[in-house]
Specification:
By secondary structure, the chain is of the alpha/beta class. The chain has one domain (2-135): Rossmann fold (3-Layer(aba) Sandwich), CATH 3.40.50. The chain contains four helices and seven strands, in the order βαβαββααβββ. The protein has helices spanning 9-21, 39-49, 85-89, 93-96, and strands at residues 2-6, 28-32, 64-67, 73-78, 101-106, 120-126, 132-137. A seven-stranded mixed β-sheet has the order 1-7-6-2-5-4-3, covered by helices on one side. A hairpin with a 5-residue loop joins β3 and β4 (73-78). α1 (9-21) crosses α2 (39-49). It is globular and about 40 Å long. It starts with a strand and ends in a 10-residue tail after the last strand.
């Protein structure tokens, strides 16, 4: 587990870009953080690190947004309205998991019992203004993003 403090959306995206550059097919990112914490901003950085455009939008009303590039595909889910395994099944969530895709899941707390054991948890805490404390847990390969 590593914690980092960022002072602007640009710093948050730059850190996320480093994480994104280390992602592999089959990775599941489980976000934790309240409204306005910066989960979508973080996902913009992930997309850049994966070689995708940063035109990432919150999937609040769409449930899932898909971003394709030459390499991995990024599926960005919002589970705010999904409260149990049965509701998750209706989203087709499991159909998106593949070795050629990464899943970034907002409001992962709502489906925590359904996530793979090797999911990487990213907790974003809003500390006031543009300040964020970001904690990454679950995989040692991301330690390099702090150097």
């Amino acid at each position: 587990m590593v914690k980092i403090h960022t002072s602007s959306p640009e710093e948050t995206m730059a850190f996320a870009e480093k994480i994104g550059s280390l992602l592999r097919g089959g990775d599941v990112i489980a976000y934790k953080g309240g409204l306005g914490a910066g989960k979508t901003t973080f996902t913009r950085g992930l997309a850049l690190g994966m070689g995708l455009p940063d035109e990432v939008f919150s999937p609040t009303f769409a449930l899932v947004n898909e971003y394709r590039g030459k390499g991995l595909t990024l599926y960005h889910f919002d589970m705010y309205r999904i409260m149990n395994a049965e509701a998750l099944e209706t989203t087709g969530f499991y159909d998106y998991m593949s070795d050629s895709a990464v899943i970034a899941c907002e409001w992962s707390e709502n489906i925590s019992e359904c996530l793979p054991k090797n999911a990487v948890t990213i907790t974003i805490e809003h500390c006031g203004g543009d300040e964020r404390e970001i904690t990454v847990e679950g995989d040692e390969r991301f330690d390099a993003a702090w150097n």
